[in-house]
Every structure is written in structure tokens, then in C-alpha cells.
TrEMBL record:
All residue ranges annotated as the Serine aminopeptidase S33 domain in the record: 138-372
Gene3D superfamilies: alpha/beta hydrolase
Sequence similarity: Belongs to the AB hydrolase superfamily. Lipase family.
GO molecular function, one term: triacylglycerol lipase activity
GO biological process terms, semicolon-separated: lipid catabolic process
Organism of provenance: Botryotinia calthae
Name of the protein: Serine aminopeptidase S33 domain-containing protein
Amino acid sequence: MSEPLLLEFPQGVSDAIQYERSLWAHSAEEDAAFYSVSGIAMASAQPGTPIKVQEDANLAQNYTLPPNTAVSRFIYVSESLSGERRPVSGYVLWPYMPRLDANGGNQVVAWAHGTSGTTVSTAPSKFKNLWNHFIAPYQLVLQGYVVVATDYAGLGVGKDQNNQSIAHDFFASSSVATDVVYSVQAAKKAFPQLSESFVVLGHSQGGGATWGVAQKHAVSKIPGYLGAIAISPATSVLDNPEPFGSLIAATMAPGIAALYPEFDYNEFFTPDGLELFNKIVKLDCASSTTIPILLTLAGDLLKPDWASNEWLLKYDNLTANGGRKISGPLLVIQGDNDPMVNYNNTVKKLGAALDLSPTSHVQLFRLPGTSHTPAVTGSQRIWMDWIADRFAGVQLKPFDKNANFTSVVTPARNLSSYVPELNWFVGAATEAYQTP
């Protein structure tokens, strides 16, 4: 990122990027060394193989973790949509008192994060608070679960062993689902004390990933997989209301181009839209900064016929959720006031999946008056209990097409009494008086 490029944006963009960089746990030089896999032989390495492990990533106490928790970082082999081996980074969050399974293994929850960005500097493992902090990962580790969290391909590790750039497959649920599954397998090899069994929990893009894991399990059984929880899940880019639909489609472009070289950016973007998008890629900053910038061109970012683009449709058909078999217990949670993921569409897509999977164990919880991210915090008791039940071996009844698979949560207070959106962020304390 260059200073002249920043001058083309309002001062607020520079302020946002400065703040974002202040949240990095390590220096740019330290991260460059850790996330580099240049020269590491990977051709014969199977997906799910760890290739670099940093057992104690918090020696300098740079992360803003809850007391009595620890974090490791690792890089492992995953697989691209075209079947090629590629390196992906992630982290492992360790509890002080891990929950144990019957064999003495530390119980594992795989966390699939919501959108942090689409470029190399936006990996959750780079941030002091691991991006999603108390929204889910910290809550899980404080309950005694070992949290294994992939960054997803293209975030963190930006180039492969041959120094070729790795595109992030944004909104490609089958791709990030692959990263989730192999992150768990790699973590188990790196840390033998982890349990063989695991549960997957994800939100937004990560909710799409967990749904994608349920689809993968229907095709080929995943060892140790106990079930998935998808909160505010991504399904298909074509399902998202505007202005988010075209914004999501724009950020999918690098992934589409990586799989289909015939994809032409100029046939997809407007001239102004492509110019802005290329600048944003160079900024290399998190979604909390890029989304407001992209919204300045709402309605004029992509060509009017973007939704019928041949390569977008091929990519979406290959990677989207819904209309495919699912297997294993699946819990879906969503607010009915979500501006990014339409609740009724989620019901429709889940119904289509159930038509193909009539014996699946599926449940949907609707949270009245609840938005996108608050669906995670508002439903914590539900998903925590569900995770504990899976490890305890509690059996679920198969889906009954004649029964209602939707449960509606009843809040204790009037909806107007509740905080509607996240209005805080976990930062480092620099003075003693800043901590209670």
C-alpha cells in the first residue's frame, strides 16, 4: 500500500487503515517470515498435513486474549477448487482446563469466521483479538473447547511454495469448507492431544463454510465429524439483496478468475467500478474498511447484467449452498431482520436440501428482530448446548417432513430494549487503569 494511493481516498480511509494496522499482533516483518512457505516442498504432502507450527504465538503477549488462554499458529496443506495443493494458515486457541472426551482427548470445535477481508493482511490470525474475539472464539475457549480456526486460503499466506499468488475464494462455500476440514486434520497431527471428534461452528461466510461441510459429509464421510452449526449462513450470491449482492459478486471476482481464466473483469465491472476495485485490492485492508468504500458506487459497481455472467454462474453453481444433499446433524440459526442474508431465502434453501436428504438431522432457529452478527451472540446458549450434546452423544431425531423444523426464540424483553448491533471492539490495554 502506497501513500499516493491513500491520498485518493478520504482521510477516514487512512485513519481506518492505521487503526487496523495497530490491531496486528506481530510486526510486518515477523508476519512475512511466518506466513512465507517459499521453497517448502508440498507436492507430495497430503491435504491436512501441517507444514509450519508456531506452538506459542503469544510469547510477547501481543494478543488480547482472555486470561488463562493461549494461542498457536500453524500453516497446513489444503486443496483448491481445481484440486491443487495449497498452503493455508490458521490458529489454535487453547483453554486452561480443556474438556475431555472418553479417550482423554481435548474436545475440538472448528471455528469458521465471517468475512474479515479478501486479501493477505486480513487473516484473523494476524489480529490481536483474532478478529471475532468474544463473538464466538473466546466464548468457546472459556468453555473448555480447543478452537481450531482456519484463516481460509489467500488470507495470511498470500503465495504458494512456488511464489505464485493465492486468490481468496470469497463466498465459495465448498472451497472454504475444504479449508475448515483440513485445518482440523492438520491440527490433530500437529497436536496429538486433540480429540478425534469435532464440531464445526461458523457465521456468515463461515456459516456458508459449515453448511458446505455438511454437504461434503454427504459425499464422503469425514472422520470424527459430529455436526455443524451455520449462523446467518451464506448460500448463493444470487440470493443476497442489494446493495450487498453486487458488492459480494465484485469481491468474488479474483476467485472466479483464478478458476476460470476466461473470466473478463471488463465484462463484469463498470469502468469506474473496476478502477475502484483494483485500488481496494492494493489497499489490502479488512472488510470493515472496504465495504463502506465499495458502497459509494452502489448500483454502479458492476455491469447491469452481472447476475447473468457466464463465469459467475458456473462458479456459483460449483460452490454455493442449497440444492445439494447434506449429512450429519445441522443446526441453522438466523435473525429475521438480517439485511445481508434473507431469512426466508435461508428457509427455502434449507427446505431444498432437506428434500434431497429426508433422513437428515436438521433444526432451524429464527431469532425475531435480530440482525446479521447479533444472531451469533443472541443464540449463544443454543449453540453451546448443541455442541455439548454432540460430544455427549445425545441422539437427534431424523427430520420429519410433516413436522415443523423451525423453532422461534422468545426474547425476555421487548425487542426495542436490546442492543441491535456490535458497538465495541476488543483492544489492548496500555495502562493499568484500563483493566478492571
